[in-house]
């Protein structure tokens, strides 16, 4: 488990994207007003908000955009919030307690398709376990 950056529902998506890039994170923990996990926002969901819908629907259309303009697609999320980047359907929240085993963490990540699990105990967020940290530990064993 490690300390992990958090964002709120009203955090600008561009700020969240910078946090993901600057700290090389697989996703973010989005907290509610009480500071407890509301959802896990994988980096792919941030991209989903920024990439034009027509490029997601037909990848061939993404190829016709020249590289100079393609590099600017992230500007589309300027002024939007994390709340807008969240998936429409909420899945099981990947949250567990301090006593979770490596296998429990792996099963939770696999079941929820989440690259990280938030650790909550005593009514507060203690940190997170990332997929990378989990795999590092399993491979070393």
Automatic annotation (TrEMBL):
Transmembrane segments: none annotated. Gene3D superfamilies: CBS-domain. It holds the Pfam family CBS. This is Transcriptional regulator. It comes from Nonomuraea africana. Residues 2-35, 91-138 form the CBS domain. Signal peptide: none annotated. It comes from the Bacteria.
